[in-house]
Specification:
With 253 residues, the chain is an alpha/beta fold. 58% of the residues lie in helices and 11% in strands. Helix 3 (46-53) packs parallel to helix 4 (71-80), helix 6 crosses helix 9 (192-200) and helix 6 crosses helix 10.
Length: 253
């Protein structure tokens, strides 16, 4: 994502400096030279990088990050800096060609001037930005990412353990299940450490997974008992959620 934003910002007409493990430009030198610094680093080394970069920034500068979680990250940036701070979470991957129509979450930390500029720039380029507190962001991410990844991993392991004929599964797949299988397949392209951090470092993940697991066990019992009345009751309850979901999908789409 660091490379993606390098290209994006360069395309917007900005001069972009890059510091990485294999560049001559050190992180502290970059922090002293730039008004705006974007941290695009793995979450396991994030605190270490912040302690190097944040103190070197001028008070009238702007520090943001691209991590998938925000509570600890924004707090870390605030603790180690005096400049304006906000968290940025692009809700898309580096394979996207442009930012138009893509969601970006912004989490205020300190100051308003640079956050207004940053949100304005993203909006001008067609992004769909939304402001959340770091806690609101991470609570939602427990469902959007942690629980979602939990389901995908369990699906993949279930297919593996049961020695299902994958060819038969794909030949008989409905469109919705085929989409799920494509997502499971794309896990081979992802960074396991990033997924581990999303799953293990979010303090709200256990609650989301516990709630899901409770209903999964309840539904398992219904299926084992052949209890059609209880199945219809649960199905009807989920159906009642439909209009609310559709309304919000239209509003955010």
């Amino acid at each position: 994502m660091g490379k993606w934003f390098d290209k994006f910002l360069s395309g917007c007409g900005f001069t972009v400096l890059v510091s990485d493990v294999d560049t001559e430009l050190k992180a502290t030198d970059l922090a002293e030279s730039c008004q705006v610094v974007i941290l695009a680093v793995p979450m396991d080394v994030f605190p270490e990088v912040v302690t190097q970069v944040a103190p070197a920034m001028a008070e009238n500068g702007f520090l943001t990050d691209l991590c998938s979680l925000k509570e600890k990250q924004v707090a870390c940036m605030l603790e180690n800096s005096k400049c304006e701070v906000a968290g940025t979470h692009p809700l898309f991957g580096p394979g996207e060609k442009g930012i138009e129509g893509k969601r970006v979450a912004l989490c205020p930390g300190r100051g308003h001037k640079w956050l207004k500029w940053w949100q304005g720039l993203l909006d001008e380029q067609g992004a769909l930005t939304t402001i959340f507190s770091p806690e609101e962001h991470d609570r939602a991410m427990a469902w959007v990412q942690a629980l979602n990844h939990f389901i995908l991993l369990c699906l993949g392991k279930s297919l593996e353990e049961e020695e299902i004929n994958i060819r038969h599964i794909l030949e008989l797949a409905t469109p919705s299940f085929e989409r799920q299988m494509n997502i499971v397949a794309r896990l081979c392209l992802q960074d396991p450490k990033l997924y581990a951090a999303i799953q293990l470092d979010n303090p709200h993940s256990p609650k989301a997974i516990e709630t899901f697991s409770r209903y999964a066990m309840e539904l398992e019992g219904i299926v084992k008992r052949g209890d059609i009345s209880s199945f219809l009751k649960m199905f009807n309850e989920v159906q009642q959620l439909g209009p609310t979901l559709l309304r919000h999908c239209r509003e955010t789409g």
